[in-house]
Design brief:
This protein is an alpha+beta fold. The chain folds into two domains: 161 residues, Cupin (Jelly Rolls, Sandwich), CATH 2.60.120; 54 residues, no CATH class. The protein is built from eight helices and 13 strands. Helix 6 crosses helix 8. The longest helix is centred in the last third of the chain and has 18 residues.
Length: 295
């Protein structure tokens, strides 16, 4: 069954038919998000997570325009019996940072929040890829990050407040890397998201977002993108195992001939590779439990 026919994929969209409109890796798309996705995070939930969730760095981070604040300024050690747990979220310190213009980032709520876990695992199944979530609570009129590119496809879901997204060029081919880009990179579009809006950003497209005058809370859903390079890397790992701990001869004499022979042997592995094992390795089953059973 195609992922397009799976209800879990369509559940991201307020209008399920828009699930067919994603032009993977080629063009951004603005759409209306489903209520079930919008309900995954809120300021109220974040308050409870910070106070009662026992979150620890790096499950949460604080930054100013993409520059991380020292973890010691928003976490403290908590005592558990005779043990000290370092890096625990301190809600009052985090509130102070937010008043000073910071962004709070909560990573991978699917690890500690049941509703987010159900959404993530439901989406990962039909898409056959890794799915992660990040929540960004940004102070009014502030940028949440520097201009950058992500390796994965990104869905930004605006939950509260507004955010203006600046989209930069979409590089072609494989000659780009994730990370920061220059602010003078050509701008493709500016799109303002209001509560209920969502934006698909293709892998590699540069982007940056600025909160509106009332601040912003948005949820990012990130999909790990597989490419032919991933297939080649998986094959190379399998092929390398056949060479075990062999070494090329010391010294320059005979080295070129040894390299040629190694390459001939390597070429032969393309016809003997266990392609089923390679394919299975790139679509691993989810082995982490999502619910408690048989206790």
């Amino acid at each position: 069954m195609s992922y397009l026919d799976d209800a879990a994929w369509a559940s991201l969209f307020a209008k399920p038919e828009q699930a067919n409109d994603i032009d993977w890796g080629r063009a951004p798309l603005r759409f209306a998000a489903a209520d079930s996705v919008l309900s995954l995070v809120s300021k109220r939930k974040i308050e409870r997570w910070l106070v009662y969730g026992n979150l620890r760095y790096p499950q949460l981070n604080v930054s100013y325009g993409g520059e991380g604040a020292p973890p010691t300024t928003f976490t403290r050690a908590r005592r558990l019996n005779q043990h000290q747990l370092p890096g625990c979220a301190h809600a009052d310190d985090i509130s102070t940072h937010l008043r000073q213009g910071a962004t709070l980032v909560l990573s991978n709520a699917e690890i500690w929040d049941e509703a987010t876990a159900a959404f993530v695992h439901g989406l990962a199944r039909p898409l056959a890829c890794a799915v992660q979530t990040y929540s960004y609570l940004t102070a009014p009129d502030r940028f949440g990050s520097k201009p950058h590119r992500d390796e994965g496809d990104v869905f930004a879901v605006q939950v509260e407040g507004s955010k203006e997204w600046t989209l930069y060029d979409l590089p072609t081919g494989e000659g780009w890397h994730r990370g920061h880009i220059d602010e003078d990179t050509p701008v493709s579009a500016k799109i303002t998201l209001e509560p209920g809006d969502a934006l698909y950003v293709p892998a590699g497209m540069g982007h940056r977002a600025q909160a509106g005058p009332e601040g912003s809370l948005h949820l990012t859903v990130s999909l790990e993108v597989l490419s032919p390079r991933n297939v080649i890397a998986a094959w190379a790992a399998q092929a390398a195992a056949q060479f075990d701990r062999e070494r090329l001869p010391m010294g320059a004499e005979g080295r070129p001939d040894a390299i040629r022979e190694t390459l001939r042997r390597l070429a032969a592995t393309t016809t003997t590779a266990d392609i089923d094992a390679i394919a299975d390795a790139l679509v691993p089953p989810n082995s982490w439990p999502t619910q408690i059973s048989n206790l």
